[in-house]
């Protein structure tokens, strides 16, 4: 069983609690002080990209409307050498607070992808959009996994902008009412 990470926001969307699993995850991403720094600050400060931020707001509204039933969403949170299939559970409470719990339900090794490596030097003259939810990259020819966008040997991949693909937006925002509870590009129908 994968380790879970948990954090909580109050009715005003400020981070009020993070657990050890969250601190470990943040440290793994190279942000060892994030768990302490996040407390008291608006959650949306930590969501990169305008459209992912808008979606986050919509999902928080949806989760509060669904309370006390949890909303459970699928997403990808890839590492340069691993596909990681994540689950995010949003649990609304009567006081308007929301508890976020996340874990990886599956991981797959892959050849190293510089495009997914925050440490990799970038080509200053080009950018590519990354869907924050399915981790596919967008371009003129649709949305594709990192492997299909640039050659793995490309030493300077384009800079990444955080966005949202049409499929994820559709799946995450247009399901009627609070049903079904599961959604996202890798979710159950
Ligand atoms: Zn997507």
Q: Which descriptors apply to this entry?
A:
23% helix; alpha+beta; Beta-Lactamase; four-stranded mixed β-sheet; globular; binds zinc ion; six-stranded mixed β-sheet; 189 residues
Helix percent reads: 10-25%
The name of the CATH topology is: Beta-Lactamase
CATH class wording: Alpha Beta
Number of domains: 1
Query: What order do the strands of the largest sheet run in, or round the barrel if closed?
Result: 2-1-5-4-3-10
What is the strand tally?
10
CATH architecture: 2-Layer Sandwich
Distance separating the two termini = 24 Å
Q: Helix count?
A: 5
Main sheet specs:
6 strands, mixed
Description of the molecule:
The protein has 189 residues and is an alpha+beta fold. It has a single domain (5-183), classed as Beta-Lactamase (2-Layer Sandwich), CATH 3.30.450. It has helices spanning 20-28, 34-38, 50-66, 146-149, 166-173, and strands at 5-9, 15-18, 71-76, 82-92, 98-109, 123-131, 137-139, 142-144, 158-163, 182-183. The strands form 2 sheets. The chain has a 6-stranded mixed beta sheet with strand order 2-1-5-4-3-10. The chain has a 4-stranded mixed beta sheet with strand order 8-7-6-9. The radius of gyration is 17 Å and the shape is globular. It starts with a strand and ends in a 6-residue tail after the last strand. The model has no long low-confidence stretch (mean pLDDT 87). Zinc ion (ZN) binds next to α5.
